[in-house]
Amino acid sequence: MDRPLVITEDHELLDDLLRIAAAAGAELDVAHVPAHARPRWNRAPLVVVGGDMADALAATGPPPRHRVFLVTQERDDPDTWRKCVAVGAQAVLELPAAERRLVDEFADVAEPPAGPAAVVCVVGGRGGAGASVLAGSLALAASRRRLRTLLVDADPLGGGLDLVLGQEEADGARWSDLVAREGRVSCTALQAALPTFAGLTLLSFHRGEVEPIPAEAMRSVLEAGRRGFDLVVVDLPRHLDQAAAEALGRATTTLLVVPADVRGVLAAAQVLTGLRAHTGDVRAVVRGGVLKDDVVTGSLGVPHGGSVPDQPGLAAALDRGDVPPLGRRSPLGRFCSEFLHELLKEDA
């Protein structure tokens, strides 16, 4: 694959460009004189021309092409726009102000566009509804189908999806390492930084005091997930914060886990009010109880997303640190298989 081409002899500028490219997960080809750039001029997916090389490059008469940028560290230089026109650049990017724009440009060519992944949000209708277990089970089931799957723990008070999956000791980044991120995140770099097991990539919290997830960090992670994975599953808190709103705004569908009893339905109705302010497709997943599924969904006014009967031994298995049992005959296994089948059919 051809790499972005940088044409400059300014070592300070080149150091900045190499750093910015690394943040985007991109590698660069570098030409220190225009003659060395000519063989790669048409092949490179993106060309960055340093202000120091603009006149020398223009003198060689390079053919017009798309995605050429003039990059400079000189602010308000009156000669900059003349140089921009001379090399046929589409824009002038002044550093450091334009760093985020340049990260996005490098990331666009480092990560070829792919169909956006489906995003499934899961939220409990009340405490103890089993939303985290369901989110983890869906992600595991998807990874076993060889879907590239990102599981995002967005509930700071949920106890940790890494614990649900028996991965609390796994090496890799957690939310506290990412909360300061703004702008585009390379999906390749994200996957490399996070714990990955059995084909599943997990983003969860460190133990101890946790910080709220900034909306900008959630946006960056989910956009990277949509570009680099086939499925993104997000476990949300019942009390929606700004990060949860970001996730809901990108959700393909949202599963509201509702225990089939009066208290469960009343609590879920309160959660549903918040969900509807941010997303359109909400489906009720009914957990075994005294009420019938149609009574639960009719009371809430949402479609039926499926049923998950109580599964004997599930709580004990999770306490032992076992992953959720997803055999084809288990209630969880049947639900996950049927849900993923329908989701992938809808997404096709």
From TrEMBL:
SUPFAM superfamilies in alphabetical order: P-loop containing nucleoside triphosphate hydrolases
Protein name: Septum formation initiator
Source organism: Streptosporangium longisporum
Gene3D superfamilies on file: P-loop containing nucleotide triphosphate hydrolases
The organism's place on the tree of life at top rank: Bacteria
Domain named Rv3660c-like CheY-like N-terminal: residues: 7-114
